[in-house]
């Protein structure tokens, strides 16, 4: 059953008298326990999309959607109190910047305890210490009384993860959870996310919430799979055992190769390609996805030069006519200048891409 259904989501920000689109016509769904990776260049709308799912956008933003349903309820129709119960309750959120996500004048232990107070009916120091241990923070007893500025970047991110999973969420949305961290810590945090998804399944079912809330593709030499041969089924089995669904947002598509079941690639506020991660990575359909993957560092081989994707994403205030990628696209043709391509099934039908090369004609 679908846990999250998004249909034709649109977000604009007010810039003075103008309204500038940041997310356009986004549709996707997420099953229970599934991991969706969301990738794209800076400014492509990843954070805006993540925030929109929980209506966490700033006042300058306006949101509309045909449908935004979580676990059978319309998020758009929830009362403010129900929405507050959803955030941090059934859906955990890890913000892009762990420092600004934490309150500098409260100890990190108090901050996690406050989440328990709000969502689990009372503070529980022992549960906080257990959560700190679960996210592999050293010396949980000492850390309880520490302030955010006394922690390293990696430790702060682990505290944010502890807060996000404190309520055994059904869905965790993690927006660039590793951006500010060095490579070793990045991998540790991503491995931890995988472990947490599996662990959360083993815990007791979600209790009633406060208030009135009712309850693989073929090997391809040009785009070699980052998964080694034979690893795919083991990872797939591992994922099938997981319970907590995850939306993992990153500008680094390489980080998603080993962990997401499906991959959505965003460009200029739209999803331009979405499908099983292994298929998208081994046989990218959209010219933008192809360019993005070609600019990834190879984990092996001698050629470590990165051919940068030529050009810049368009200014959202001045989007070009037709396909938003056309000024950078090596395959652009006449139709691309006039008509905006819609997402449609391509290849074997498991992947969708928004590109006229796949016959998007009226
Ligand atoms: N609070 C805001 N007010 C006005 N415009 C905003 C705001 N937040 C984001 N934007 C604009 O919306 C667009 C999408 O931004 P967003 O932060 O969602 O992109 P992103 O893909 O998360 O980028 P990054 O990889 O840098 O985090 C950009 O053009 C950005 O300038
Ligand atoms: S629609 Fe045209 S410009 Fe856009 S990605 Fe496809 S070929 Fe390139
Ligand atoms: Mg972002």
List the SSEs and their pairings.
Elements: E1 2-15, E2 18-31, E3 35-39, H1 46-53, E4 61-64, E5 67-70, E6 73-74, H2 80-86, E7 91-94, H3 98-101, H4 108-120, H5 125-134, H6 140-143, H7 153-165, E8 171-175, H8 183-201, H9 231-240, E9 245-250, E10 262-267, E11 270-276, H10 277-282, H11 287-294, H12 334-338, E12 344-346, E13 351-353
Parallel strand pairs: 3-9, 3-10, 7-8, 8-9
Antiparallel strand pairs: 1-2, 1-4, 1-5, 5-6, 10-11, 11-13, 12-13
Helix pairs in contact: 4-5, 5-7, 7-8
Structure report:
This protein is of the alpha/beta class and 362 residues long. It has two domains: 2-90 and 167-358, P-loop containing nucleotide triphosphate hydrolases (Rossmann fold, 3-Layer(aba) Sandwich), CATH 3.40.50.300; 98-166, no CATH class. 30% of the residues lie in helices and 21% in strands. It has twelve helices and 13 strands. It has helices at 46-53, 80-86, 98-101, 108-120, 125-134, 140-143, 153-165, 183-201, 231-240, 277-282, 287-294, 334-338; strands at residues 2-15, 18-31, 35-39, 61-64, 67-70, 73-74, 91-94, 171-175, 245-250, 262-267, 270-276, 344-346, 351-353. An eight-stranded mixed sheet has the order 7-8-9-3-10-11-13-12, sandwiched between helices. Strands 1, 2, 4, 5 and 6 form a five-stranded antiparallel sheet that branches. Strand 5 and strand 6 form a beta hairpin. Helix 4 crosses helix 5 (125-134). The longest helix is centred in the middle third of the chain and has 19 residues, at 183-201. The radius of gyration is 21 Å and the shape is globular. The two termini are 33 Å apart. The relative contact order is 0.14. Bound molecules: adenosine-5'-triphosphate, iron/sulfur cluster (SF4) and magnesium ion. Magnesium ion (MG) is lined by residues 46-47, 96, 175-176.
